[in-house]
Amino acid sequence: MPIYEYCCGKCGQDFEYLVLGNDKPEHCPNCNSKKFSRLLSSCGFISKSKGGETVKSSASSCTGCAADNCSTCGH
Hints:
By secondary structure, the protein is mostly beta strands. It has one helix at 70-73, and strands at residues 3-8, 14-18, 36-39, 45-48, 54-57. Strand 1 (3-8) and strand 2 form a beta hairpin.
């Protein structure tokens, strides 16, 4: 399941949203504005392991990164 990154046009806050099917966020979680746009992202997929634990897997550009969030890793 992809995680998309968005930027709010009103408050400038970046936020992530887990996409299920054709789902998309309804509003910015910071200011509730409906004016936001999707950002390009090089990482952001999660999957469930056999034990039911959610595991984040990175894109190839982030394989050597130990950061929890691609926006903080510098890649």
